[in-house]
């Protein structure tokens, strides 16, 4: 009986360790996958860094309001987000917000996040 209990305890311990162990991700050839960067460097002055997998979009429009960290734009349709033409407020870095004023015609780049967008670059036209 003692032998049976010890055997069952050993099997249970081994099963526990196997279930708790973590397997590292590997590629098809068994090597560890390359590390991915969480953000890419900004490509121009005042641009905000992006996540490598962020969905991007471009549009044009007219600035209707400027806040400390936002810009409201009456913009053209943005197919990448499935948005029709409308007036919308977008988050923007303070430097980007300061670079435009109400009435400016602009072209802008967005990082899309669900139903929101963040301006990553903006240029007066």
Walkthrough of the structure:
The protein is of the alpha+beta class and 125 residues long. The protein has a domain at 55-124: Copper binding periplasmic protein CusF (OB fold (Dihydrolipoamide Acetyltransferase, E2P)), CATH 2.40.50. 19% of the residues lie in helices and 34% in strands. It is built from 2 helices and 5 strands; from the N terminus they run H-E-E-E-H-E-E. The protein has helices spanning 2-20, 94-98, and strands spanning 55-66, 70-75, 86-91, 105-113, 116-124. It has a 5-stranded antiparallel beta sheet. It is globular and about 25 Å long.
Instruction: Indicate the low-confidence ranges by residue numbers.
Output: 13-29, 31-48
> Reading side by side through the largest sheet, how are the strands ordered?
3-2-1-4-5
Structural class: alpha+beta
Give me the CATH architecture of one domain, please. Answer: Beta Barrel
CATH topology of one domain: OB fold (Dihydrolipoamide Acetyltransferase, E2P)
Shape: globular
Order of helices and strands: HEEEHEE
The DSSP helix count reads 2
Helical percentage:
10-25%
Beta content: 25-35%
> Roughly what is the average pLDDT, rounded to an integer?
74
Distance between the termini: 87 Å
- Using only C-alpha atoms, the radius of gyration works out to 26 Å
CATH-level-4 superfamily name of one domain: Copper binding periplasmic protein CusF
């Amino acid at each position: 009986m003692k032998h049976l209990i010890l055997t069952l305890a050993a099997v249970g311990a081994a099963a526990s360790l196997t279930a708790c162990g973590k397997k590292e991700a590997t590629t098809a050839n068994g090597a560890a996958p390359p590390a991915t960067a969480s953000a890419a460097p900004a490509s121009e002055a005042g641009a905000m860094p992006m996540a490598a997998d962020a969905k991007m979009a471009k549009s044009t429009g007219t600035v209707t309001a400027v806040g400390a960290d936002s810009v409201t734009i009456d913009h053209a349709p943005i197919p990448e987000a499935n948005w029709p033409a409308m007036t919308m407020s977008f988050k923007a870095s303070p430097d980007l917000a300061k670079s435009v004023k109400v009435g400016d015609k602009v072209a802008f780049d967005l990082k899309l996040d669900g139903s929101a967008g963040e301006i990553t670059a903006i240029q007066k036209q």
